[in-house]
Write the C-alpha coordinates for this entry.
Amino acid sequence: MKSYVLSAAVAAILAGTFLSCGKKSNEIIIGGVAPVTGEAATFGASTKNAFDLAIEEWNGKGGIDGKKLKLAFADDKGDPAEGATVFTKLIQQDKAVAILGPVMSKVALAGAPIAQAASIPMMASTATNPKVTLVGDYIFRACFIDPFQGTVGAKFALEDLKTKKAACIFDVGNDYTKGLSEFFKAKYTALGGEVVAFEGHATGTTDFKAQLTKIIAAKPEILYVSDYYNDAALIAKQARELGFKGPMVGGDGWDSPKLTEIGGAAIEGSFFTNHYAADDTRPIVQEFVKKYKTKFGAEPDALAVLAYDGAYLMFDAIKRAGKLDGPSIKAALTATDMAVVSGQVKFDSDRNPVKSAVIVEVKNGKFVYRATVNP
Ligand code: PHE
Protein backbone atom coordinates (compact mmCIF):
# COMPACT_ATOMS: atom_id res chain seq x y z
CA MET A 1 0.00 0.00 0.00
CA LYS A 2 2.72 2.41 1.04
CA SER A 3 4.75 1.78 -2.10
CA TYR A 4 1.61 2.20 -4.23
CA VAL A 5 0.96 5.64 -2.67
CA LEU A 6 4.61 6.60 -3.14
CA SER A 7 4.74 5.50 -6.76
CA ALA A 8 1.50 7.38 -7.47
CA ALA A 9 3.13 10.51 -6.03
CA VAL A 10 6.24 9.91 -8.11
CA ALA A 11 4.14 9.38 -11.25
CA ALA A 12 2.35 12.67 -10.60
CA ILE A 13 5.65 14.51 -10.29
CA LEU A 14 7.08 12.84 -13.41
CA ALA A 15 3.95 13.71 -15.36
CA GLY A 16 4.40 17.33 -14.24
CA THR A 17 8.03 17.26 -15.39
CA PHE A 18 7.10 15.99 -18.84
CA LEU A 19 4.29 18.51 -19.17
CA SER A 20 6.60 21.37 -18.32
CA CYS A 21 9.22 20.02 -20.73
CA GLY A 22 6.52 19.98 -23.37
CA LYS A 23 5.75 23.61 -22.73
CA LYS A 24 9.36 24.82 -22.68
CA SER A 25 11.04 22.07 -24.63
CA ASN A 26 14.13 24.18 -25.27
CA GLU A 27 15.08 24.34 -21.56
CA ILE A 28 16.23 21.95 -18.87
CA ILE A 29 15.56 23.26 -15.36
CA ILE A 30 18.28 22.47 -12.83
CA GLY A 31 17.59 23.22 -9.17
CA GLY A 32 20.41 24.79 -7.13
CA VAL A 33 20.41 25.13 -3.32
CA ALA A 34 23.00 26.90 -1.14
CA PRO A 35 23.13 29.24 1.89
CA VAL A 36 23.73 32.73 0.48
CA THR A 37 22.60 34.23 3.80
CA GLY A 38 23.01 33.00 7.40
CA GLU A 39 25.92 31.53 9.39
CA ALA A 40 27.66 30.09 6.30
CA ALA A 41 27.03 32.85 3.76
CA THR A 42 30.50 32.71 2.19
CA PHE A 43 29.85 29.01 1.42
CA GLY A 44 26.69 29.96 -0.46
CA ALA A 45 28.28 32.76 -2.47
CA SER A 46 31.09 30.54 -3.80
CA THR A 47 28.68 27.71 -4.53
CA LYS A 48 26.25 29.91 -6.46
CA ASN A 49 29.14 31.40 -8.49
CA ALA A 50 30.29 27.92 -9.45
CA PHE A 51 26.77 26.77 -10.48
CA ASP A 52 26.50 29.86 -12.70
CA LEU A 53 29.93 29.28 -14.26
CA ALA A 54 29.24 25.61 -15.01
CA ILE A 55 25.86 26.40 -16.59
CA GLU A 56 27.35 29.22 -18.66
CA GLU A 57 30.07 26.86 -19.96
CA TRP A 58 27.65 24.06 -20.86
CA ASN A 59 25.25 26.47 -22.55
CA GLY A 60 28.21 28.02 -24.40
CA LYS A 61 28.81 24.58 -25.90
CA GLY A 62 25.16 24.25 -26.94
CA GLY A 63 23.59 22.88 -23.74
CA ILE A 64 22.42 19.25 -23.70
CA ASP A 65 20.81 17.75 -26.81
CA GLY A 66 20.07 21.24 -28.12
CA LYS A 67 18.35 22.33 -24.90
CA LYS A 68 19.72 25.15 -22.74
CA LEU A 69 20.25 24.59 -19.03
CA LYS A 70 18.47 26.98 -16.70
CA LEU A 71 19.29 27.31 -13.01
CA ALA A 72 16.39 27.65 -10.57
CA PHE A 73 18.32 28.80 -7.51
CA ALA A 74 17.10 28.94 -3.88
CA ASP A 75 18.74 30.22 -0.68
CA ASP A 76 18.46 27.66 2.15
CA LYS A 77 19.81 30.23 4.68
CA GLY A 78 21.84 27.47 6.34
CA ASP A 79 18.61 26.29 7.94
CA PRO A 80 17.23 22.72 7.62
CA ALA A 81 13.55 23.82 7.72
CA GLU A 82 14.17 26.37 4.99
CA GLY A 83 16.08 23.69 3.06
CA ALA A 84 13.05 21.39 3.11
CA THR A 85 10.78 24.23 1.91
CA VAL A 86 12.99 25.15 -1.04
CA PHE A 87 13.48 21.51 -2.09
CA THR A 88 9.70 21.11 -2.33
CA LYS A 89 9.39 24.36 -4.27
CA LEU A 90 12.16 23.50 -6.75
CA ILE A 91 10.67 20.08 -7.45
CA GLN A 92 6.96 20.87 -7.48
CA GLN A 93 6.83 24.45 -8.74
CA ASP A 94 9.96 24.92 -10.82
CA LYS A 95 9.93 21.31 -12.12
CA ALA A 96 13.67 20.86 -11.67
CA VAL A 97 14.88 17.57 -13.18
CA ALA A 98 17.84 17.41 -10.77
CA ILE A 99 19.13 19.32 -7.75
CA LEU A 100 22.64 20.64 -7.17
CA GLY A 101 23.58 21.22 -3.51
CA PRO A 102 23.09 21.86 -0.74
CA VAL A 103 26.35 22.70 1.01
CA MET A 104 25.79 21.87 4.68
CA SER A 105 25.12 18.33 5.91
CA LYS A 106 22.32 19.38 8.25
CA VAL A 107 20.45 21.03 5.34
CA ALA A 108 21.22 18.16 2.96
CA LEU A 109 19.70 15.74 5.50
CA ALA A 110 16.47 17.77 5.45
CA GLY A 111 16.30 18.07 1.64
CA ALA A 112 17.43 14.60 0.59
CA PRO A 113 14.27 12.72 1.71
CA ILE A 114 12.19 15.10 -0.43
CA ALA A 115 14.35 14.54 -3.53
CA GLN A 116 14.40 10.79 -2.87
CA ALA A 117 10.59 10.54 -2.53
CA ALA A 118 10.17 12.40 -5.83
CA SER A 119 12.88 10.35 -7.63
CA ILE A 120 14.80 13.54 -8.39
CA PRO A 121 18.59 13.03 -8.37
CA MET A 122 20.50 15.29 -5.98
CA MET A 123 24.21 16.09 -6.01
CA ALA A 124 25.27 17.51 -2.65
CA SER A 125 28.40 19.50 -3.31
CA THR A 126 30.12 19.62 0.06
CA ALA A 127 27.90 17.86 2.61
CA THR A 128 30.40 15.44 4.12
CA ASN A 129 28.37 13.65 6.82
CA PRO A 130 28.00 9.95 5.87
CA LYS A 131 24.24 9.87 6.60
CA VAL A 132 23.44 12.19 3.66
CA THR A 133 23.70 9.69 0.78
CA LEU A 134 22.32 6.88 2.95
CA VAL A 135 18.93 8.61 2.64
CA GLY A 136 18.50 6.79 -0.68
CA ASP A 137 19.68 5.84 -4.14
CA TYR A 138 18.91 9.25 -5.72
CA ILE A 139 21.34 11.03 -3.39
CA PHE A 140 24.94 11.54 -4.53
CA ARG A 141 27.72 13.87 -3.46
CA ALA A 142 30.83 15.40 -5.01
CA CYS A 143 33.01 15.33 -1.85
CA PHE A 144 34.72 12.78 0.41
CA ILE A 145 33.02 11.90 3.70
CA ASP A 146 33.82 12.66 7.35
CA PRO A 147 35.06 9.25 8.56
CA PHE A 148 37.91 9.78 6.08
CA GLN A 149 38.33 13.47 6.93
CA GLY A 150 38.39 12.71 10.68
CA THR A 151 40.96 9.98 10.08
CA VAL A 152 43.22 12.32 8.12
CA GLY A 153 42.98 14.94 10.92
CA ALA A 154 43.70 12.37 13.65
CA LYS A 155 46.71 10.88 11.86
CA PHE A 156 48.09 14.33 11.16
CA ALA A 157 47.72 15.33 14.82
CA LEU A 158 49.43 12.15 16.02
CA GLU A 159 52.13 11.65 13.41
CA ASP A 160 53.01 15.09 12.07
CA LEU A 161 52.25 17.21 15.12
CA LYS A 162 53.54 14.40 17.36
CA THR A 163 50.81 14.77 20.00
CA LYS A 164 49.36 12.13 22.32
CA LYS A 165 46.58 14.07 24.05
CA ALA A 166 43.80 15.81 22.16
CA ALA A 167 40.54 17.59 23.01
CA CYS A 168 37.53 18.17 20.76
CA ILE A 169 34.97 20.96 20.66
CA PHE A 170 31.88 20.92 18.40
CA ASP A 171 28.33 22.21 17.84
CA VAL A 172 25.84 19.76 19.39
CA GLY A 173 23.11 20.87 16.96
CA ASN A 174 25.05 20.30 13.75
CA ASP A 175 25.33 16.79 12.28
CA TYR A 176 28.53 17.70 10.46
CA THR A 177 30.55 19.19 13.33
CA LYS A 178 29.37 16.61 15.90
CA GLY A 179 30.02 13.71 13.52
CA LEU A 180 33.43 14.97 12.51
CA SER A 181 34.59 15.28 16.14
CA GLU A 182 33.32 11.75 16.79
CA PHE A 183 35.24 10.35 13.79
CA PHE A 184 38.38 12.23 14.86
CA LYS A 185 38.09 10.88 18.41
CA ALA A 186 37.56 7.27 17.27
CA LYS A 187 40.66 7.33 15.05
CA TYR A 188 42.90 9.30 17.43
CA THR A 189 42.08 6.80 20.19
CA ALA A 190 42.40 3.72 17.94
CA LEU A 191 45.89 4.84 16.92
CA GLY A 192 47.06 5.14 20.53
CA GLY A 193 46.24 8.76 21.40
CA GLU A 194 44.01 9.89 24.23
CA VAL A 195 41.07 12.30 23.92
CA VAL A 196 41.15 14.04 27.30
CA ALA A 197 38.09 16.26 26.77
CA PHE A 198 35.13 16.10 24.37
CA GLU A 199 32.92 19.16 24.70
CA GLY A 200 29.79 20.13 22.80
CA HIS A 201 28.49 23.70 22.75
CA ALA A 202 25.02 25.03 21.90
CA THR A 203 24.23 26.17 18.34
CA GLY A 204 24.41 29.93 17.91
CA THR A 205 26.44 30.74 21.04
CA THR A 206 29.42 33.10 20.81
CA ASP A 207 30.82 32.29 24.25
CA PHE A 208 32.78 29.06 24.41
CA LYS A 209 34.61 29.78 27.67
CA ALA A 210 32.83 27.19 29.82
CA GLN A 211 33.79 24.36 27.42
CA LEU A 212 37.29 25.74 26.85
CA THR A 213 37.99 26.09 30.57
CA LYS A 214 37.17 22.39 31.05
CA ILE A 215 39.24 21.47 28.00
CA ILE A 216 42.31 23.42 29.11
CA ALA A 217 42.11 21.93 32.61
CA ALA A 218 42.46 18.46 31.00
CA LYS A 219 45.78 19.57 29.41
CA PRO A 220 45.46 18.56 25.76
CA GLU A 221 48.41 19.12 23.40
CA ILE A 222 46.14 19.77 20.43
CA LEU A 223 42.59 21.10 20.09
CA TYR A 224 40.37 19.66 17.35
CA VAL A 225 37.75 22.26 16.36
CA SER A 226 35.21 20.75 13.97
CA ASP A 227 33.06 23.91 13.78
CA TYR A 228 32.42 26.15 10.76
CA TYR A 229 34.68 29.17 10.27
CA ASN A 230 32.78 31.74 12.41
CA ASP A 231 32.66 29.58 15.52
CA ALA A 232 36.16 28.17 14.87
CA ALA A 233 37.67 31.67 14.76
CA LEU A 234 35.95 32.71 18.00
CA ILE A 235 36.95 29.45 19.68
CA ALA A 236 40.58 30.05 18.66
CA LYS A 237 40.51 33.57 20.13
CA GLN A 238 38.91 32.50 23.40
CA ALA A 239 41.21 29.46 23.71
CA ARG A 240 44.25 31.76 23.40
CA GLU A 241 42.77 34.22 25.94
CA LEU A 242 42.39 31.33 28.36
CA GLY A 243 46.03 30.36 27.83
CA PHE A 244 45.92 27.43 25.38
CA LYS A 245 49.21 27.44 23.44
CA GLY A 246 49.05 24.26 21.35
CA PRO A 247 48.05 23.88 17.69
CA MET A 248 44.45 23.65 16.55
CA VAL A 249 43.22 21.35 13.80
CA GLY A 250 39.92 21.61 11.96
CA GLY A 251 37.96 20.33 8.95
CA ASP A 252 36.64 21.67 5.66
CA GLY A 253 34.21 23.98 7.48
CA TRP A 254 37.18 26.32 8.13
CA ASP A 255 37.48 27.15 4.45
CA SER A 256 36.50 30.83 4.39
CA PRO A 257 38.41 34.12 4.21
CA LYS A 258 36.48 35.03 7.38
CA LEU A 259 38.48 32.45 9.38
CA THR A 260 41.59 34.62 9.42
CA GLU A 261 39.68 37.91 9.31
CA ILE A 262 37.98 37.04 12.60
CA GLY A 263 40.60 34.71 14.07
CA GLY A 264 43.68 36.86 13.38
CA ALA A 265 46.78 35.88 15.33
CA ALA A 266 44.84 33.31 17.38
CA ILE A 267 44.33 31.01 14.38
CA GLU A 268 47.91 31.32 13.00
CA GLY A 269 49.83 28.06 12.85
CA SER A 270 46.65 25.98 12.80
CA PHE A 271 45.81 23.31 10.22
CA PHE A 272 42.69 21.99 8.53
CA THR A 273 41.73 19.20 6.17
CA ASN A 274 40.18 20.26 2.88
CA HIS A 275 39.13 19.11 -0.60
CA TYR A 276 41.51 21.09 -2.76
CA ALA A 277 44.35 23.61 -2.71
CA ALA A 278 44.62 26.44 -5.24
CA ASP A 279 48.38 25.86 -5.59
CA ASP A 280 47.80 22.32 -6.93
CA THR A 281 49.69 22.34 -10.26
CA ARG A 282 47.46 19.92 -12.24
CA PRO A 283 46.34 21.70 -15.46
CA ILE A 284 42.62 21.08 -14.83
CA VAL A 285 42.97 22.86 -11.45
CA GLN A 286 44.95 25.81 -12.81
CA GLU A 287 42.55 26.26 -15.71
CA PHE A 288 39.59 26.37 -13.32
CA VAL A 289 41.34 28.79 -10.94
CA LYS A 290 42.03 31.12 -13.88
CA LYS A 291 38.47 31.02 -15.24
CA TYR A 292 36.95 31.57 -11.80
CA LYS A 293 39.29 34.47 -10.98
CA THR A 294 38.53 36.16 -14.30
CA LYS A 295 34.79 35.95 -13.78
CA PHE A 296 34.48 36.60 -10.05
CA GLY A 297 37.69 38.44 -9.12
CA ALA A 298 38.58 36.02 -6.31
CA GLU A 299 40.39 32.74 -5.87
CA PRO A 300 37.94 29.80 -5.75
CA ASP A 301 37.62 27.98 -2.43
CA ALA A 302 36.79 24.27 -2.04
CA LEU A 303 33.10 25.10 -2.04
CA ALA A 304 33.38 26.58 -5.52
CA VAL A 305 35.42 23.64 -6.81
CA LEU A 306 33.01 21.02 -5.51
CA ALA A 307 29.90 22.89 -6.67
CA TYR A 308 31.46 23.18 -10.13
CA ASP A 309 32.47 19.52 -10.12
CA GLY A 310 29.03 18.46 -8.88
CA ALA A 311 27.37 20.42 -11.68
CA TYR A 312 29.64 18.82 -14.28
CA LEU A 313 28.98 15.33 -12.89
CA MET A 314 25.22 15.95 -13.04
CA PHE A 315 25.20 17.50 -16.54
CA ASP A 316 27.39 14.72 -17.89
CA ALA A 317 24.96 12.15 -16.48
CA ILE A 318 21.94 13.96 -17.98
CA LYS A 319 23.71 13.98 -21.34
CA ARG A 320 24.58 10.28 -21.16
CA ALA A 321 21.06 9.42 -19.95
CA GLY A 322 19.61 11.01 -23.10
CA LYS A 323 16.35 11.48 -21.15
CA LEU A 324 15.18 13.80 -18.40
CA ASP A 325 13.43 11.41 -16.04
CA GLY A 326 14.91 10.77 -12.59
CA PRO A 327 15.49 7.01 -12.95
CA SER A 328 17.45 7.48 -16.22
CA ILE A 329 19.59 10.29 -14.79
CA LYS A 330 20.21 8.29 -11.61
CA ALA A 331 21.32 5.26 -13.61
CA ALA A 332 23.74 7.40 -15.62
CA LEU A 333 25.13 8.99 -12.45
CA THR A 334 25.79 5.57 -10.95
CA ALA A 335 27.97 4.72 -13.97
CA THR A 336 30.06 7.93 -13.69
CA ASP A 337 33.80 7.78 -14.32
CA MET A 338 34.89 11.33 -14.96
CA ALA A 339 37.89 13.62 -14.41
CA VAL A 340 36.80 16.80 -12.62
CA VAL A 341 38.79 19.55 -10.88
CA SER A 342 38.96 17.78 -7.51
CA GLY A 343 40.04 14.44 -9.05
CA GLN A 344 38.77 11.38 -10.93
CA VAL A 345 35.25 10.54 -9.78
CA LYS A 346 33.63 7.13 -9.54
CA PHE A 347 30.92 6.46 -6.98
CA ASP A 348 31.09 3.67 -4.41
CA SER A 349 28.01 1.63 -3.48
CA ASP A 350 26.82 4.43 -1.15
CA ARG A 351 27.17 7.03 -3.95
CA ASN A 352 30.25 8.66 -2.40
CA PRO A 353 33.27 9.47 -4.55
CA VAL A 354 36.56 8.02 -3.37
CA LYS A 355 39.01 10.94 -3.25
CA SER A 356 42.07 12.33 -1.54
CA ALA A 357 42.18 15.15 1.03
CA VAL A 358 44.66 17.98 1.44
CA ILE A 359 46.08 19.48 4.61
CA VAL A 360 46.21 23.26 4.70
CA GLU A 361 48.21 25.42 7.10
CA VAL A 362 47.13 28.89 8.23
CA LYS A 363 50.29 30.92 7.72
CA ASN A 364 50.64 34.73 7.68
CA GLY A 365 46.87 35.01 7.31
CA LYS A 366 46.89 32.80 4.20
CA PHE A 367 45.97 29.18 3.45
CA VAL A 368 49.10 27.27 2.43
CA TYR A 369 49.03 23.77 0.94
CA ARG A 370 50.95 21.32 3.08
CA ALA A 371 50.21 17.75 1.93
CA THR A 372 47.86 15.46 0.02
CA VAL A 373 46.52 12.36 1.76
CA ASN A 374 45.08 9.46 -0.26
CA PRO A 375 42.32 7.18 1.02
N1 PHE B 1 31.38 19.70 5.05
C1 PHE B 1 30.49 20.69 5.61
C2 PHE B 1 29.19 20.03 5.99
O1 PHE B 1 28.98 18.92 5.64
C3 PHE B 1 30.25 21.83 4.66
C4 PHE B 1 31.48 22.46 4.09
C5 PHE B 1 32.18 21.88 3.08
C6 PHE B 1 31.96 23.61 4.56
C7 PHE B 1 33.33 22.46 2.53
C8 PHE B 1 33.09 24.19 4.03
C9 PHE B 1 33.78 23.60 3.02
O2 PHE B 1 28.34 20.59 6.63
The first strand starts at residue 27 and ends at 34. The radius of gyration is 21 Å. The chain has a mean pLDDT of 93.
